[in-house]
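If your schedule permits, I should be very grateful for your opinion on a structural question. The matter concerns a single protein, recorded as an amino acid sequence and a row of backbone structure tokens. Could you please explain, in whatever detail you think fit, how the structure tokens follow from the sequence? I set the record out below, with my sincere thanks for your time.

——
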Amino acid sequence: MFDRIDRFIKKAARIFGEIAGWFLFVCMLLVTVNVILRKVFGSPLLGTYEWVEILTAVVISLGLAYCAIVGGHIAIDFIVNKMKPGVQRMIAIICGSVSCLVMGGVTVSLFLYANTLALSGEVSPTTKIPYYIFVYVAGIGFVIFLAVLLLDLYNSVRRKNTHES
């Protein structure tokens, strides 16, 4: 049962990482087209700044879980690696617990904020894009990231290596 959950979380993180990559590609295209239109025709693409700003937030939130799965985050563990395995495990459990609590709070806050934005009807100034949709997407990205953190914590408690693929 746990192996199926483990595979599901890792697959979801990879899919979200792929989606984040495509959104990053769209950002690159928007900026490139905007620069070309501005230089060649003297008229920029209206709303480029807003779209790049929104998509960048989405890219980061959707890419966090994948980054955690592949161990792409910055870790300063050269001191911890010199400690005994039992101490390393306890540090991993404490750090994992704190990370889960903080990211759980961030995740809940994102959904509450998205709901507030939806109720208020707040939109971007130039293109009138409703913000709440993208905050919900960011919240979903954080749900997957939280699942990865919980998986790591569970593996630390069980003394398994994390991020086994």
